[in-house]
Amino acid sequence: MRFVLAIAAFVLAAVMIVLGIAQRTVLLEPAFTSLSATVTGTGKYTVIDPSALAASSGSQTINVRGDGPIFVAYGRSEDVAAWIGDDAFATVGLSEKTGELTSTVTAAVTRDDSEGATGDSAGPDAATDAATDAGAAIMNPAGSDLWLDEYSGTNSVTTTLTLPEGISVLVASDGIEPAPAGIRLSWASDNSTPWAGPLLAGGALLLLAGLVLYLLALLHLRRSRRPRRNVPRGPRMPRLPRAPRPKAIKASQITSRRAIARRVAILPMIVVSGLALSGCSADLWPDFSATNTATATPTPTPQSTDSVEAAAELPPPAVTVSQLETIMSEISLLTADADANLNIETLATRFTGPALEQRLANYKIRAVDPAVAPLVALAGAPLTFTLPQQTNSWPRVVMTVIQDENDPSIPTMAVILKQESPRTNYQVDYLFALEQSAHVPKVAPAIVGAPAIAPDNKLLLLPPDELAAAYADILVQGEASPSFGLFESEGDNFRVQVADLNAAKIAALPSTASIEFAAAAGSDEAVALATNDSGSIVAVSMTETETVKPVDAGATVGPAADALATKALSGITTTAKGFSNTYRDQLLFYVPTAGSSDKIVLLGFAQGLITSAELP
After folding, report:
1. How many angstroms separate the CA atoms of 184 and 100, rounded?
2. What was the pLDDT predicted at 294?
């Protein structure tokens, strides 16, 4: 019976060990699942559709092969489509029937330039179309602010990503040559064998048990063959002659069945022990942690169906925080280079509106008189506040605040950036130094964004396009202005600064000259983003002018001795006609909702001389 049990244990152990080894060899699933596609045609751009990226679960390894430079980027599907616009492109998708990648080509769209050019028939998308046309000359997608990340190389580019639904991948060369043709998508497969470890370990234990049973059976058989006690003696047999003594045998020459059996028994033990030890990998054993984790997951808080649907219908934010960090880092480096070299062309690639006008005036002044100090450097980090616009169209705006706590000499800066079209990058439109006492109202998180407020919106205490004119009237008339009661005067350092500077200029003016001050709303469009309390953060521009004239016949006037910027721009020292200085102001306000008892608060400002000229 012991032999039968030992044989059964040996057979079962062999079956378990063979199955365990087979799961890690011949039955092992591949570690990767791959799909390939070859793009035909001469299109400059190829889009990998989200359906192709989601053909298998897990991270996507994208391999693009071609001849020459290769560019790969990913971004929101709407942004990728907007960047391509009307150009021809290929789409790599997934066939639901075959499960293979497909390649389709979309021809370029030719639009009639006269369509929607005049009249109300232009429709709401006319401005977006015009902005898209403005950036159509840009062919190379490298460096676009729309991409969440980008990669480049030569002949081959491989990257591993984990892209969710709604993200597409753009493949191109340099925007001039055709896009690379070879595209391969791979996904890491779960080829773990959780039962290989138990089978190997169980087989080893059964083999050990079989050996024990086999040894016990041999011992029992040996004992059963010994002579029994109290056996009657028979007649004594005659003594046989002694056999010759055999020669001594070396230990290495022992080849008895017992020695062979021991070796045969030890060999499987060594093999199985090695297999069992190799089965210590986590891939060879069942994982029960998922069950424990699942039981510990808290019950989600019930949410209203209406709120979920409303959130899903909101447009996405114009940028993510990581995108904006990259954008501001690039703008900061470019600005530092342009400020150091007075490079107007470089600056114009990332600045526009009043921010560009003020910096260009500073370049012009410093080119004439290097003693004039440059404007405050624009830091690229850290971003302590980010408020992107909720939008799927263009132009797009985003506001951010940069505050370097480690360097108190650098003021806290607020930046308003604008992107005119998909193929143009974000440019600094407004740039302010925040008031020390400024309290930015609560706004939506950056992953949600805020809607833009129309310039003529009547639901605020003042419409954004009337804000600059009202504040300019306060600077001129003071408390006599009808708008004086709408603005908070406490903590408004700009108003105090303007009053002090004007008083100092009047005091320094000789009796033979007169000076007049004026202020008016600037020509730049107001930018407004909503806050959580139905108010708005509004950026506007304003123009201040001062006109100095002689009052006596034959008298002359000129800039003050310390007015280096005025002398550099006007090129005059004295004149009998008089001269005029123009300042451009950038102002950032918080405007509460209509009917609120709160007042409009100045959050930040920037002022700079932009022109100085002799009167005609």
Report:
1. 11
2. 39
Q: Please answer whether residues 81 and 392 qualify as being in contact, where contact means their C-beta atoms are separated by less than 8 angstroms.
A: no
What integer pLDDT is reported at residue 413 of this predicted model?
92
Q: What CA–CA distance (Å, rounded) separates 578 from 559?
A: 10
pLDDT at 307: 41
257-278 vs 2-23: helix crossing angle, rounded to 10: 40
Whether the Cβ atoms of residue 473 and residue 495 lie closer than 8 Å to each other? no
Q: What is the pLDDT of residue 296?
A: 41
Of the candidates 471, 463, 399, the one whose C-alpha atom is nearest the C-alpha of residue 431 is: 399
For residues 410 and 45, give the distance between their C-alpha atoms in angstroms, rounded to a whole number.
43
Q: Residue 141 in contact with residue 172, Cβ under 8 Å?
A: yes
List average pLDDT for each run of 10 residues in the chain, which is 616 residues long: 77 81 69 83 91 89 93 95 93 90 87 47 44 64 94 93 93 92 85 71 80 79 66 60 61 50 49 50 57 41 44 83 94 94 94 95 91 88 93 95 78 94 96 85 93 94 95 93 92 91 87 90 94 95 92 79 79 85 95 92 93 88
Q: Which of 142, 157, 151, 138 is nearest to 68 (CA)?
A: 157
Q: CA-CA-CA-CA torsion for 267, 272, 274, 280, nearest 10 degrees?
A: -170
DSSP string, 431-495: EEEEPTT--PPP---TTT-BPBPPTT-SSBSS-HHHHHHHHHHHHHHGGGSTTGGGB--TT-HHH
Q: Which two tokens stand for residue 328?
A: 């501001």
pLDDT for the residue 462: 94
d(CA 494, CA 601): 12
Q: How far, in Å, CA of 564 to CA of 350, rounded?
A: 28
Structural contact between residues 517 and 545, judged by C-beta atoms closer than 8 angstroms: yes
Q: Which SS3 state, helix, strand or coil, does residue 154 take? A: strand
The two structure tokens encoding residue 249: 């045998």
Q: State the Cα–Cα distance between residues 80 and 82, nearest whole angstrom.
A: 5
Q: CB of 404 within 8 A of CB of 67?
A: no
Give the whole-angstrom CA distance, residue 429 versus residue 368.
26
The encoded tokens of residue 26 equal 């011949």
Residue 339 DSSP class = H
E strand or H helix at 320, and its extent? Answer: none
Q: Indicate the helix (H) or strand (E) that contains 148.
A: none
Angle at which helices 196-224 and 2-23 cross, to 10°: 160
Quickly list H helices, 24-162.
50-53, 77-84, 126-134
Residue type, 391: T
Q: What is the DSSP letter of 390?
A: B
Long-range Cβ contacts of 337-344 (<8 Å, 24+ apart): 339/374, 339/375, 339/377, 342/366, 342/367
Q: Which two tokens stand for residue 175?
A: 């925007």
Q: How far is CA 84 from CA 108, 174, 386, 427, in A?
A: 10, 14, 28, 21
The token duo for 372 is: 């004039």
Residues pairing with 611 in the sheet: 582
Decide: helix, strand or coil at residue 18: helix
Cβ–Cβ under 8 Å, residues 53 and 101: no
Report the alpha-carbon distance of residue 264 to residue 247 in Å, rounded.
28
Q: Does residue 70 contact residue 157 with C-beta atoms inside 8 Å?
A: yes
